[in-house]
Amino acid sequence: MATDTLIDRRIAAPAAAQPRRVFVIDDDDVMLLTCRRTLEKDGYDVETFQNGLDGIRRIEQLQPQLLLVDLKMPELDGLQVIERVRKVDPDVVIAVITGYATISTAVEAMKAGAYDFLPKPFTPDELRLIVNRGHERWRLATESARLRREKEEAERRFVTFVSHQLKTPVVAAKQYLDVLLYTSASELTPRTQEWLKRAQARLDEMLTLIGDWLELARIERGIDSIGEPLMTSDLRKVISDVIDASQAHAQSAVVTLETDLAADVGPVRGDVVSLATVVSNLISNGIKYNRVGGRVTVRTRLEGGMAVVEVGDTGIGIAEESLPRLFQEFCRVKNDQTRDIPGTGLGLAICKRIVATLGGSIGVRSHVGEGSTFVVQIPTAART
Ligand code: ADP
Questions:
Q1: Which atom of ligand 1 approaches the CA of 327 most closely?
Q2: Which of 51, 89, 233, 290 could form a disulfide with 294 if both were Cys (CB 3.0 to 4.6 A apart)?
Q3: Which domain holds residue 31?
């Protein structure tokens, strides 16, 4: 039975509305009778089994909130029962009953997934304590799973809202401006044309922000296949393609793009889109925060089983005090040189998330007035 279905079914009904169901598996029928009497008096719905296999079968059908299982039984012992129960129902709270309570058996049972421990012989109050505590734990776990689902659903709705309700009208407004500028240019004064172009540029900034924000949300929710162990890509090709695609940007900024790509790096972990996003963000920043006539150099090398990509520039550099928060969302270094450079402050945060998902790292060295070098480490396919 799929775990999701179990959780869904449990979350579907409010915890208070569900019968408080306890299963007890023990080969000792006196023990079973004692448990049943004590717990039924407290309003629990109790089912007892002398045999582990019968209990497991019934757990699949009924999903009790709580299972009490004896560790020492002739056929399947308690640890084996716990192991199998965990496979059919990872959410049931398990407490073990044992007549030979030692630290090592307790540790073993906890490792196998038990939550609590009830040494024999026990009084009805001791039994109640364990069962009530277990039930409370189940209630809290169910409640937090429900809240987690609600949060994910709210995030999903928000992403949909942003993409449709916000992006669509911005794209439409931009298209109207396009039409106005290119079909009615002769009727517009140069001043009006200038204003319309500025309005277009602001809409472009907004679209970039929405795009970056959606990208970040996608990475966070794990929608992309980033980091799938079998997904590897040719880093050299990814970098060459991004360099080609960045030439127009570089030329308009009068910046030269250079590469020094080691032949021995080979394929690296990650899909082409994610790797290209990282390289492209870094190259784009290298161009944006450069000076006229400057350079952006992309180098690769192999170091301890990791591919190292360095994107260096001859630009404005970053003050030391800004470095620690550079990879945080919406961080933009504000000074006279950056004031008019458009950006969202999300590019480096996206790079960091992608690289971390791939099992790598990203860092930066910088000197104000001399330039910056962003250093990315990504596991090679050989390490995967
Ligand atoms: P943005 O969209 O603002 O460029 P990023 O997350 O890519 O967002 O970068 C965050 C901030 O880090 C930038 O606003 C800029 O101040 C600084 N920065 C990033 N790359 C460079 C660079 N190569 N040279 C100088 N400053 C940089």
A1: 6
A2: 290
A3: 3-148
